[in-house]
């Protein structure tokens, strides 16, 4: 693990594998003040992208880390706040490309997608992970507490358009909070709202770290399960659900049954097999490779399996 000013990790991510993080913005710089944010109150509420640091400084640090030949699966642009508030995002992504062929992921609230320069920069990444927590103005304001200049309709339309134009993997993330957006009525509203987006995955989360507001509580396991069943999403809270679970005893058959419903990447299968205490993971991966009925998609060394 390397600690620097802009780069951190690599840290293990259940979704992304060994993820090397890049934070191009100062701490707690955001255009939202989400009730569940684990970074606490947004101290630097801003909605205009700024060149907080020179791209060259971030890239120099990245180069230093990459020169150590660490094992890395993905480069994630994330930050202690909202990374699209970095005005050098497009240049940063293009320069990362010159240093590595690893996939680049962007974790964002998507609130600036209606700004052309941000929209265009976001098109450059390989995996786009926007959080979408409101299905209407009221739920949006209640959960995300956005900067007053951010319009729910405008950013929703922008994300819908983006999702159809984007060529990489788009993984939506929804945070479920007890008593706030965890009823069947909420789930049905999300279901209909999400129809306008073209996405590859939906991850369902619930606050498991200390949130900004003490009234924010995680949903119960049975509620998470109901949400997963209703929305077709994957749970990612590491306390409340391990995401991929299967009652099928045979490890290979369990994976086949899961990827029939939802694609899994190599890291997710790896964690799934770890959870089941499988010792010969190589044999399982070989069977997956040898099985012609399983579609393998490799992109920048990142293998996704689907059936
Ligand atoms: S968008 Fe992210 S960083 Fe910003 S307040 Fe919400 S959870 Fe925190």
Describe the protein in words:
It is a single chain. The protein starts with a strand and ends with a strand. It has a 9-stranded mixed β-sheet. The chain has a 3-stranded antiparallel β-sheet with strand order 12-14-13. The protein has a two-stranded parallel sheet with strand order 4-5. The protein is an alpha/beta fold. It has 2 domains: 2-243, Aldolase class I (TIM Barrel, Alpha-Beta Barrel); 245-307, Arc Repressor Mutant, subunit A, CATH 1.10.10. It has 10 helices and 14 strands. Residues 30, 32-34, 37, 39, 42, 81-82, 109 line the site of iron/sulfur cluster (SF4). Residues 30, 32-34, 37, 39, 42, 81-82, 109 line the site of iron/sulfur cluster.
Number of helices: 10
Q: Compute the average pLDDT.
A: 89
The main sheet orders its strands as: 1-2-3-6-7-8-9-10-11
Distance between the termini: 36 Å
CATH topology of the largest domain: TIM Barrel
Order of helix and strand elements from N to C terminus: EEEEEHEHEHEHHEHEHEHEHHEE
CATH level 1 name of the largest domain:
Alpha Beta
The CATH architecture category of the largest domain equals Alpha-Beta Barrel
Q: What is the CATH homologous superfamily assignment of the largest domain?
A: Aldolase class I
Estimate the strand proportion.
15-25%
Instruction: Please estimate the helix content.
Output: 25-40%
Q: What is the gyration radius calculated from CA atoms? A: 19 Å
Query: How many domains, as an integer?
Result: 2
Alpha-beta content class? alpha/beta
Low-confidence stretches: 238-242
The main β sheet shows up as: 9 strands, mixed
Bound molecules: iron/sulfur cluster
What coarse outline follows from CA principal-axis ratios? globular
Number of strands: 14
